[in-house]
Amino acid sequence: MTEDITTIVHKGFSTWKRNLAICVPFIIEVLATFVLFIIFTMFFVMLFILPEVSANNVDLEQLSPEEFLAVISSLLSGSIWPLVALGIVFVLIYMFLQSFFMAGAIGMSKEASQRGDTSLRDMSAYGMRNVVSLFLAKILMLLLALAGIVFTIPGILSIGDLGTLLNDPQQAIAGTSMLLFGLLIWGFYLLAISIVLIFVQYALVVENLDPVSAIEKGVAVFMSNKSGALALWIILIVISLFMQLLGEIAGFIDVVAQVWSLVNPILTFIVIPTLTTIWWTRLYLNRNGNKLYSLEDYILDH
């Protein structure tokens, strides 16, 4: 039986209450990302900052803001491609880690939605089984998103080089306007891509698909369930805006602001992502005719 969005949100919340362990992949992901950031910061300092400081005979203990900016400027002008390479490696490693934990969270959500309960063994099993495929699917989706850069090419070409712009201010205004318009179109393209591909990772993990098949299946499921997917997407946007509003209100009261500064990261990085994953997983399962945990079993939650 097809469930409406209200039922999916309600039962998804009940699933989360019965299976708080689904938060664990997101907790570990936050910790792993922090450790990864620290490691890459150390590599950045050792490979780029320290050699630059030594070359300029700068004392780190007495480094002024002006000297620091000079070091960074010299670094950017002389080592831009190694910096880009380091950044790409960081992004790829992060995407791989995120793919593992996301696959694990989706797998746990699937088991909880169908069986009524799940465990960390499901996180490990689904993560190991789907991490490579999900990682490759994310790269394909990233490339699709970056393809929208073509919308900015006319503006970039119209701007030309800096010397031409200085000699022809009118061309500068026209070129900049065209570039801004291209960026706006690219923004709408990214929004459309993110919505149309919303089911891809759920299709990949739930049905154990390869990346290309997952994209095809995810798009097909979205096209067949546009109203339901957009309704859930709007609910998530409203939740995000509501949290921002709470943050703004909390800023007017010191005590509340301090409490909110502790609660907000937990909601943002753990609770909301967990509920979001459960809701999208349940919507995908329901719209594909999968048997879900029966309504009678949810009576215990009321």
In short:
This protein is an all-alpha fold. It has helices spanning 5-18, 24-55, 65-78, 80-115, 120-146, 153-159, 162-167, 169-196, 200-207, 211-224, 226-250, 254-287.
In helices, the fraction of residues equals over 70%
Largest sheet: none
State the shape.
Answer: globular
H-E order:
HHHHHHHHHHHH
- Gap from first CA to last CA: 21 Å
- Counting DSSP H or I runs of 4 or more residues, the number of helices is 12
Low-confidence stretches: none
Domain count: the total is 1
The helix/strand class is mainly alpha
Percent strand: under 5%
For the residues shown, what is the average pLDDT? 87
| Rg, Cα atoms, Å | 24 Å
